[in-house]
Amino acid sequence: MENKQQSNGMTKENNAVKKKVNWSGSLILASLTGAFGSSFLYGYNLSVVNAPAGYIKKFYNETWERRYGFSVDEGTLTLLWSITVSIFAIGGLVGAIIVTPIVKFFGRKCTLVLNNVFAVAAALLMSLSLLAGSFEMLILGRIIMGVDAGISLSALPMYLSEISPKEIRGSLGQVTAIFICIGVFTGQVLGLPEIFGQESRWPFLFGAIIVPALIQAVILPFLPESPRYLLLEKHNRSMAEKAFQRFLGKDDVSHEIEEVLAESRVQRNTKLVSIVQLLRTRAVRWQIVTVVVTMGCYQLCGLNAIWYYTNNIFSESGISRETIPYVTLSTGAVETLAAVFSGLVIERLGRRPLLIGGFGLMIIFFAVLTVSLTLQNTVHWLPYLSIFCILAIIASFCIGPGGIPFVLTGEFFQQSQRPAAFMVAGTVNWLSNFAVGLLFPFIQAGLQTYCFLVFAGICFAGATYLFFVLPETKNKTFHEISQAFAKRNKVTLEMQEMNHYPAERKSSEEQESNFTSSVDNGETKKGIV
To answer: How many of the other CB atoms lie within 10 Å of CB of 371?
Structure first.
């Protein structure tokens, strides 16, 4: 009851004191640098294989013929290309699985810095594959680049959610989505025939990956680690205060320190939970289900299918092959603008309207696109309607479903649960990504113009679930969000606070005494790590 009164008092204090949140230089630089070397590269690698697809297939065929004395058959070539595209997701799954121990040991920021080793290695393998005459190097590079993306898409949202004040947590969290969009657009621009979209230059498309990786590796080490990680996991109060001061741009951070310590008292201890422990915790059951649904719909709603096979879709819409690279630029531009718009309005409109509304609009435009593609040979202007629908689907995705799932994963869980939660989210994300990349060509071949109705159905299912289950998390602390789920999880607030670690719970007096001693001395106590 004492913890509940402290929490209610803090909530009243937060509501009574409305402070203007300043975007400090360190906060802006950390978010931009972190995203440029992480989510930007994820988006870039989604689109970079699109423009040189014909040249890469030709390279595969020539390599095969040189080795075995005959050309590769069409079925094998299609399989090799599908593997090249979708193997990126397998690497991402590996990265999502190994991210939890990495962020625990090295911290959020250092994980992002060290992750650039994967990006540089992948860039070298892929860019030198043509010179070496080995398509295996390209496929291996795609796997390694996937590992980089899998780690960064968990570590980056975790880092951003922990360094940002709750008043701008949604806007800062959308930086992940914005840079994914910018990465997609950059891949499209560099893939133009006038730049690297030529038979002799396509390896430079993959070599360019080194640039964002090196920029992040140089700048990010000079910025602070997550203050919540420093305080709750490393128990170093002095370093946490310095990190808060730099990120918030003010000297007095006692309120922020106390807010984090209040969360630690609610949790009883700060030992990181495993995935099994997380899944067994009744107090977060519906949070986990919601993360699985949002992450699954994020990939299965069909947008990545559009990115992977944009050229084919535009070709089916009647656009000439010479014009396609330039028309494709409009998709990246629309995606970027929509993501920026979402970042600007998310703290005003909230997560629910953007997420549910985005899925709702996608359902409408998928239906119209299906009709347009089915009848395009009968009416001369219908191909243009198909292009409009594709742009509208992309915009609808980016205003909500494209970035908010990452924000919600960071908001739903307490500090000790967050790494395991991101591992669950990442696993669902990358398995779904792999499934779309591998199965969409066959779905398209089997259903023809009706293939997008499958994605419309997934969007409908996701929107319906979120309408009935998802609470609004705007401007709420992590503890307040847990309270919002307490009734649906069928636990009282006291049970929720005590259920985080049923097998390892200590008395609150002993735990709080040990933790306070630990953070005051800036040392790690083995008893509570």
So the answer is: 14
* Measured distance CA(81)–CA(79) in Å, rounded: 5
Token pair, residue 511, equals 């735990």
- pLDDT band per the 50, 70, 90 thresholds, residue 204: very high
Using CA atoms, how far residue 433 sits from 51, 93, 350, 498, 513, in Å, is: 20, 9, 27, 36, 46
Between CA 119 and CA 123 the distance in angstroms is: 6
Chain segment 437-489, per-residue pLDDT in tens: 777 777 877 887 788 899 999 999 999 999 999 999 888 877 788 888 888 88
Establish if 350 belongs to a structural domain: yes
CATH of the domain at 38: 1.20.1250.20
Structure tokens belonging to residue 255: 């309120």
Q: Is the pTM of this model over 0.85?
A: no
Q: Which residues contact 46 (CB under 8 A, 6 or more apart)?
A: 180, 183, 184, 187, 304, 307, 308
Q: Indicate whether 383 and 248 sit together in one domain.
A: no
Q: Nearest CA to 183 among 34, 45, 309, 33?
A: 45
DSSP symbols for 40-72? HHHHHHHHTTTTTHHHHHHHHHHHHHHHHSSPP
Question: 370-391, pLDDT tens digit by residue?
Answer: 888 888 778 777 777 888 888 8
Print burial letters for 133-155: b (CB count within 10 Å at least 16), e (below 16).
ebbebbbbbbbbbbbbbbbbbbb
Classify residue 320 as left (phi > 0), alpha (psi -120 to 50) or beta. Answer: beta
pLDDT (mean) for 248-276? 76
> Does 141 lie in the same domain as 246?
no
Looking at the structure, do residues 201 and 307 belong to the same domain, yes or no?
Answer: no
Cα 359 → chain centroid: 17
Based on the fold, state whether residues 155 and 98 are members of the same structural domain: yes
How many domains does the chain contain in total?
3
Residue 39 host element (H or E): helix 39-47
| Residue 239, domain extent | 230-269
Co-location of 265 and 294 in the same domain: no
